[in-house]
Amino acid sequence: MQQAEAMTAxxxxxxxxxxxxxxxxxxxxxxxxxxxxxxxxxHVDVRALRRMGAYELSQLIEEVPAPHRKRVNRWLRCYAVAxxxxxxxxxxxxx
Length: 95
Description:
The termini are far apart. The protein has helices spanning 2-7, 18-40, 47-63, 69-78. The protein is 59% helix and 0% strand. The chain has a domain at 13-78. By secondary structure, the chain is mainly α.
């Protein structure tokens, strides 16, 4: 059973089971919401809250899994926040 679940990661996104796609969608949206909330703390006038917001934001940015970053960025655009995650580009070596 575990091997079958592991193999679904290699399927085209539309061929994966709906529960797997839903779970990934929820995870991606949650990351974006957490970043939006941390960024919102920057607009509060209290220094301690701003400092806490900056710390939370830096931690969240480091913790977002690389495979989710592109999709998290889409949600961040929808939420109209300034934060964007860097997406590692894959370089294909030429032979």
